[in-house]
Amino acid sequence: MQAAPFRRGIAGPGATLRAGAAYARRWLHFGAEALAAALSPSTYTAPVRAVAARQVCSSAWEILPGFVVVCALLSYVVMRIVSSTARDYGLSGYALDLFVRLLVLELIPLFVALFVALRSGTAIGTEVALMRVRGELDEAHRREGTGPLRAELLPRGIGTAAAVVALTAIGSLVALVMAYVGIYGLSRWGHGAYARAIGQVFEPMVMVGLGLKVALFAVAVGVIPVAASLGAPRELRSVSEAAPRGLVRLFVTLALVEAASLALRYI
Amino acid sequence: MEPAPLSPPEIRRAELKAAVVLAITLAIAAGFVIYVLFARGVFERTQALVLMAEDGAGVTVGMDLTFSGFPVGRVQKIELAGDGKARIEIDVPEKDARWLRASSVFTLERSLVGGARLRAFTGNLADKPLPDGAIREVLRGDATDELPGVIASAKRLLENLERMSAEDSALNASLASSRVLMERMSGPQGALGGLLGSEENARKVITAVDRANATLASLEKVSTRLDGVLQKADESVFGSGGVMEESRKTVVQLNATLAEARESLRKVDAILADAQKITASTRAATDDLAGLRLEVEASLRRVSALIDEINRKWPFSRDTEVKLP
Predict the structure, then answer these.
(1) Which ipTM did the prediction report?
(2) pLDDT at B87 over 60
(3) Which residue, among B13, B36, B63, would best test binding to A if mutated, counting the most A CBs under 10 Å from its CB?
(4) Would you call A258 an interface residue with chain B, using a CB distance cutoff of 8 Å?
(5) pTM over 0.90
(6) Which residue of A50, A60, A207 is in closest CB contact with B21?
């Protein structure tokens, strides 16, 4: 597939719309193809598993200690702020509710997606742009199914998406533990009230919504940087612009998903 | 141009580490789902309680029913009943059901800050337990419902206050009069001047009071003297050695004297009879007559002395003292 060339110097609304439509079509095409491949068991051959595993390790395992520490500190500080403010206003009964809704449901998934995108997405986007310049991503390779898409891009996208899900789960767990410690200390007598508050916040629809949002974040982080780089012109100078462009599109997509999630839940 | 490395860097035992990460993720997800189900009371045995409320506003699925501040139940369903009331179905865990008795009262309270609250009150914990599926009415405890009435009352109160505090209000006039009265009362004539209106009247009253005081003092003296006089009179009439006692003694003496006089007269009679007998022989009787005359004279003198004595002792008698020149 010949990607639409990136046209510089055209600022008309028609051109912008055409560029946006082309980007959406390419994104959807690549995303659907990648998702279909990711969901088919035949994709997971030994080399694919190895590449995906390396990507998971690179995006999640290596940074796990630092991530847990940062998450714990951030959660504790936010919990203390929320708790003391709520107590000042006589609303301490709502502190845990507010914290969970703010941090676990909204901030941690978004921050993890952004973090993984910055750490891995930019690298992948740059590499894909370089591959395009070198002509390694031509139609023949992709049609045969043995080209870089199946061999490298798809496993790396899967690994990145898995890293997003894993870090979100671990970060949320750390945040919930720190919320308990922040409110009740190390006493075990707060568990009844804590469990009740958690049970009230995580209604079935909220759980489903959270899972769906994290899945969409993961897919976006795994797909968009590659899709953006695939649309870059075959020029060496465009390589440096491909990764930032992909990140911007990723941020916009994450913001749209987050806004849609909030709208569905609270409106 | 050198080909760029596309694959991620080589990592030792990458598949194992990736598997650990994915296993942790799955464990967290599964554990969290189970924990949330546990927290929502899915694994608890519960009994149903149905509360009927006039207005179900503020009640949400999942909110707590509290007893003494502790949650003992959770709203599972809210619907509009056939009679137009809100039907609130609550699941009460069996371990907490002992706090709810047949005589328990349930209230739905809406505060100005925060959501609605469902509360249970049990006065007698020894009452029989609340049966499963019990239907109870909810009492309203709504702070905001009373607010319009309170505001209307406050408005009326403020209007009244405004009228009372106006420039030409009765209260202001009363206060002004009070101030005049207080000023007069704090003047030289004190409260009397304030009550009587002018200093002249007050002075007259004070003068009258002074005079009355003087009269009373004089009367008191008179009374004291009268008491003394009466006491003396009492003593002189009824006291020891008084008029009454002396009179009694005198009467006794008089009786004795009269008896003596009667005896003397009887003797005179006898003597006169003798004299008649003796008349014939005058000579012989002349000596007896002389003696008799002496005796009569003596008796008459004693009678005269007795009468004098009586006259002297009787207070209304004339003065019998002989005043020497």
Answers:
(1) 0.83
(2) yes
(3) B36
(4) no
(5) no
(6) A60
